[in-house]
């Protein structure tokens, strides 16, 4: 089996195929097959594997490694945000394919095949929002007008990313230090930080492009960590 479209560390949608002993066999969304060991299903002791996975269930996994035609996956290592991003992308792709099928009728499958030779469906639609002429390579003028109208009527909801982190200090002027660190780190970004309790905070950011807001979030977290270290404060990002 050719696995050239998959990469280690990639988050993928899988369907549980079968369970043999302590090994779970899955089919990956691109048609490849992979396996998950019990230790990669969930942290801690697992009494019954079928409490987590059953044949036919769709699960989001991370590719740990690819060795020849063997793909080793993990269910427990997928972060909640990574799962959300993948499912949002899949949902968006289905929506875009639906637009093409509604507009193009019997020609849809042929055009989708042509488009996916150059782009993913999602990337194609993101591109035509900026460069509508991209459609001319694949569609007729009246078809372009129909799709453009549908896209204009569908406004994307803002995406949101949240992350918990800890920031604390025992210094006498600790509160002032922490306020300054947070203010400076969020400067020129869309990030908002909320105090929760006992040195625990939540940072969240909204926007219409997942990639951009994720970069902004990571930049802010890096700034928080750097400033905290400089000021002698304790900083840590919580997993999840």
How would you concisely characterize the structure shown here?
Helix content is 38%, strand content 27%. The protein has helices at 80-104, 108-115, 121-130, 141-153, 174-186, 210-230; strands spanning 11-20, 23-28, 33-37, 58-67, 70-74, 159-168, 192-197, 200-207, 234-237.
Strand order of the largest sheet: 3-2-1-4-5
Which CATH-level-2 architecture of the largest domain?
2-Layer Sandwich
The string of secondary-structure elements, in order, is EEEEEHHHHEHEEHE
Helix proportion range: 25-40%
Question: How are the SSEs ordered, and which strands pair?
Answer:
Blueprint: E1 11-20, E2 23-28, E3 33-37, E4 58-67, E5 70-74, H1 80-104, H2 108-115, H3 121-130, H4 141-153, E6 159-168, H5 174-186, E7 192-197, E8 200-207, H6 210-230, E9 234-237
Question: Care to describe what's here?
Answer:
- It is a single chain.
- The protein has three domains: 11-77, OB fold (Dihydrolipoamide Acetyltransferase, E2P) (Beta Barrel), CATH 2.40.50; 81-153; 159-237, 2-Layer Sandwich (Alpha-Beta Plaits), CATH 3.30.70.1130.
- Helices cover 38% and strands 27% of the residues.
- The protein has helices at residues 80-104, 108-115, 121-130, 141-153, 174-186, 210-230; strands spanning 11-20, 23-28, 33-37, 58-67, 70-74, 159-168, 192-197, 200-207, 234-237.
- The chain has a five-stranded antiparallel beta sheet, covered by helices on one side.
- A hairpin with a 2-residue loop joins strand 7 (192-197) and strand 8 (200-207).
- It starts with 10 loop residues before the first strand and ends with a strand.
- The mean pLDDT is 89.
């Amino acid at each position: 089996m050719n696995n050239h479209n998959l990469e280690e560390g990639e988050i993928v949608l899988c369907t549980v195929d079968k369970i043999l002993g302590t090994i779970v066999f899955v089919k990956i969304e691109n048609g490849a097959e992979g396996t998950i060991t019990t230790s990669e299903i969930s942290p801690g002791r697992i009494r019954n594997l079928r409490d987590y996975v059953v044949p036919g269930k769709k699960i989001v996994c991370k590719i740990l490694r690819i060795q020849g035609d063997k793909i080793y996956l993990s269910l427990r290592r997928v972060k909640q945000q990574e799962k959300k991003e993948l499912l949002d992308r899949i949902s968006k792709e289905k929506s875009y394919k639906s637009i093409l099928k509604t507009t193009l009728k019997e020609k849809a499958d042929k055009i989708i095949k042509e488009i996916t030779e150059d782009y993913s469906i999602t990337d194609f639609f993101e591109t035509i929002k900026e460069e509508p002429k991209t459609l001319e390579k694949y569609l007729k003028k009246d078809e372009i007008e129909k799709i453009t109208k549908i896209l204009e009527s569908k406004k994307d909801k803002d995406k949101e990313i949240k992350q918990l982190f800890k920031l604390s200090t025992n210094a006498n002027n600790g509160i002032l230090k922490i306020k300054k660190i947070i203010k400076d780190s969020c400067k020129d970004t869309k990030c908002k930080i909320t105090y929760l309790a006992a040195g625990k905070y939540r940072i969240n950011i909204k926007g219409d492009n997942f990639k951009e807001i994720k970069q902004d979030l990571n930049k802010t977290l890096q700034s928080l960590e750097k400033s905290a270290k400089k000021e002698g404060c304790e900083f840590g990002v919580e997993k999840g």
